[in-house]
Write a structure and sequence with these properties.
Number of helices: 8
Number of strands: 7
Low-confidence stretches: none
Radius of gyration: 17 Å
Strand order of the largest sheet: 3-2-1-4-6-5-7
Structural class: alpha/beta
Strand content: 15-25%
Shape: globular
Largest sheet: 7 strands, mixed
Helix content: 25-40%
Distance between the termini: 50 Å
Amino acid sequence: MNLLMVFARAPERGAVKTRLARALGEDQTLRLYEAFVRDCAALVSGLDVPVWWWAAGDPAVLAGVLPAGADVRKQVGDGLGARLEHAFRAAASAGFERTLVIGTDSPGMPRHLISEAFDALDSHRAVLGPAEDGGYYLLGLRGTSPEFLSKVTYSRSDVLEKTRALLTDAGTSVGLLPPWFDVDEPADLQRVVDVFQRSPERAPATVQTLRALGLMPAEDASC
């Protein structure tokens, strides 16, 4: 049995993407983050797999921007590593054999990467999707204890390599997906604009919000 988990923050003013907010302001950042969540919801809704949403903050607030009936749970634990460990243990207790976790900070992530990650767990006990900043946009486990997650220091440029080293040192084979990007810093927005100018259909809610905020040229700007 397969399970996809999405880690997200409840979209509340002042609580999301704080590094972006220093440049954009809290209101614009909140609007943009809500768009990220909506595009992520659209991405996972097209998959034939159960989806658990794990909320940092009020689950009801997160549920308010998700499709009706979304399975939203509250993150449990002190720090991201502990929260991820709790989520993976909950998945294993529910009988899921292969579990992936993604975040909401990688708008436009190709859906096929999720399918490739599940496929990779046929031959590996862990899979990582490298992010361009040195972290990862996806983590998947099959029959692997998640206790290593509490040993990782997150929000560092070496988090991918640290995680991979912990897994391999424990004798766990690790598959790697193609890289993608996530959005944390103001400079990351230009990467988003560059990608979505060419393929706006990848993240329509994000594109619409970027244009509304004046952060991306209008569709007919070149006409």
